[in-house]
Amino acid sequence: MAKTDGDWKIEAKRLRGKVRKLKERLAGSEPDAAPAQTPAKVKAPLPVSPLAPKSFPALPRIAGVSFAAVAAGVKYQNRTDVMLVSLAPGTAIAGAFTRSSTRAACVLDCQAKLAGPIDARAGAAIVVNSGNANAFTGKAGQRSVDLVTGSVAKALGLPAARVFSSSTGVIGDPLPHDRIIAKVPDLVAALDEGGIEMAARAIMTTDTFPKGAAAEIDGDGGKIRIAGIAKGSGMIAPDMATMLVYIFTDAKIAPKLLQKALSSQVDDTFNAITVDSDTSTSDALILAATGQSAAAPITSLRAGAGAAFVQALHDVMADLAKQVVRDGEGATKFVEVRVTRAASPEDAHKVAMAIANSPLVKTAIAGEDPNWGRIVAAVGKSGAAADRDKLSIRFGDTLVASNGWRAPSYREEDGAAHMKGQELLIQVDLGLGRASRTVWTCDLTHRYIDINADYRS
Amino acid sequence: MAKTDGDWKIEAKRLRGKVRKLKERLAGSEPDAAPAQTPAKVKAPLPVSPLAPKSFPALPRIAGVSFAAVAAGVKYQNRTDVMLVSLAPGTAIAGAFTRSSTRAACVLDCQAKLAGPIDARAGAAIVVNSGNANAFTGKAGQRSVDLVTGSVAKALGLPAARVFSSSTGVIGDPLPHDRIIAKVPDLVAALDEGGIEMAARAIMTTDTFPKGAAAEIDGDGGKIRIAGIAKGSGMIAPDMATMLVYIFTDAKIAPKLLQKALSSQVDDTFNAITVDSDTSTSDALILAATGQSAAAPITSLRAGAGAAFVQALHDVMADLAKQVVRDGEGATKFVEVRVTRAASPEDAHKVAMAIANSPLVKTAIAGEDPNWGRIVAAVGKSGAAADRDKLSIRFGDTLVASNGWRAPSYREEDGAAHMKGQELLIQVDLGLGRASRTVWTCDLTHRYIDINADYRS
Fold first, then answer.
1. ipTM
2. Chain A neighbors of B139, CB-CB under 8 A
């Protein structure tokens, strides 16, 4: 039955109301200003994390280190996805890797190479691809590693035992190593001492910004420089090192001492962050020291330039670790969890991680709800010694709870005001002992689910 | 400027297109058919879980047990929020409680009362409120428990040591015990042997359906009946029992044997579920046996009626535990994780829980993505012994991965088809030993975040 003109007018007005209501519903269900089509398929580039640094930092060139990146089409199209780092003869190398029992072929390969006899006179190289983790790929996975590292070794005139590799991306798919090998000549031709940012971009997966950090100290007779890059955004609960991290320095330092410096700083940096409590099969941190600084060799880490070097290394590692949290999938808040006066260091770590990994704490933070009861529950479930009547909780510096009870001075508005910030501090004092632990995490938002409900397809 | 009639027609057609597009966008961003205003504030009632049973089951009356529920306005308005259970003289009582170190005052009180000397000739009672957990409420919390249980004891003529209480809801707010005490006369007046469903509704918080289960066995000389109710939806990673569970039976059985029967079944039922890895401060399970069955007393759990009783109790507990998962906050998929051939029972549990709690596995399930690589990663991070080349993974009965590699027979379509179901099975065979473990969980969806980013306000 045909409509009269009057009918059309009524219909149009009805539809206007409907459009308004639907728009309101959409505004309520899409918490942030994502393009409309993003949530369903996450095909468009992810918006840059609101917690990202303003720009990639200016990193110093490290004598003896050069970088290249190419687009090999491992999985992603229209972007770089393989990086090569060339390291001059005499470079000392140290590493830290995931303790996952299902670690990837390239991780096992790096560990074997670092454990073997090292010819320090040879140069070295690191080749990394994104888009495919080459994890749980059976014997074919090791073969891919051999082929890729062998190809790089041949092109650079290095022993294969001095070529380290990492792969990051989807687990369980065979690595299309031919695509990488085909690009090795291009990579070698493109090596450039100034190419570190390009390299940082090539190793990104769900990262929304490249991560870099640097430090410089005065050695005995010259400057010592450190520059590092990292990737990581999800599957972040490192159990040795996080995702992929490469740090370079021109320090003169023996491999064993370099490893000692690195190992001493992993716990308070990469092992102190968590995005989603999931530990990767591929976590790898490689630290390379070219020895090309004019400064005297570092022979002790306890004092002078050695101690300064360890501190600078810590700063670079902590900076990169925090950048990984700042790029946590879907993150809108950066959260420091500081636990003090625990009965033991293990207890302090347990409590801090129980809070940092609690989905209920993380969703409350996403909702800007100062729901401190969920922090109490997280302390309770941690398995660490805790006494309700001795613990206290602070949001920022505001005392929220103590003596087993909400603090009389606490006003909900103060907690709510702290929650509105982008950088949050949760302090839990257990009042039992002298151990403390600080970890960093982010909130759990709709975007984490958007990204992870459909990452592969 | 006034529109002509023709303009209205064009306008109406344009608006129709707009409505269609907006509806499509909404369908993409709202995973299930929620009322429009729900996501932002969760003020409207939550839609019933798609995994809910069709209706509350018909539960048998248990002689010697009667129920009442009232609306006391503890926190929620316009709904019942306090339940009272009256138990006849001679009732044996057993319990299982959270091991959280920050457990609530009522949990500590129940544990103390069950550990103390029990006068079996006295009756007993259970009083439970929703809306406030009376947890982390300091000494005032214990006082509230004393006042509420004391008031019930007086009204029913019972020793206070025989009145058990639970509280569930927000942590850290003082319990408005006066509102509950004011309703005690109404509760006592309303006691009804047929009131179990009413009681199940009164203890709900973010639950979207009341949970009940029953079993009946032939004892020696008569039937023995078991009926139970539970509440639970979020903060579900029980470490002894989950949330609140009350099970009643008319069996004649001594308290110690009843406790033994209960304790033997907790691990495979309530300790085998997880919604979000967060353990509550308030988990409590109370099992009451009135002894009013015509059947002979149960004096052993090993054979005959005693063994049948344990099996029936297990069935009721497992049914209630799975209903809690089916009402997991935001759940759209019910997932059984079955781990076999682990090196030890502890390892089997670690692997099963690592998979069931992995946000990456749970979001992949929400997205119907057969992303088995994330299962590999969860196995790897669990800390349990695992050998990449010996483990195998199945979705339902479909072999996905074995021999450290994707199974040659596996087709992605088969995995994807399984993922589209509402009841999923993930099987991981570790190929190392003889221990196995089955746990139940649900997916992690946008609605979990909707519910938890703003539960309190």
1. 0.72
2. 404-405
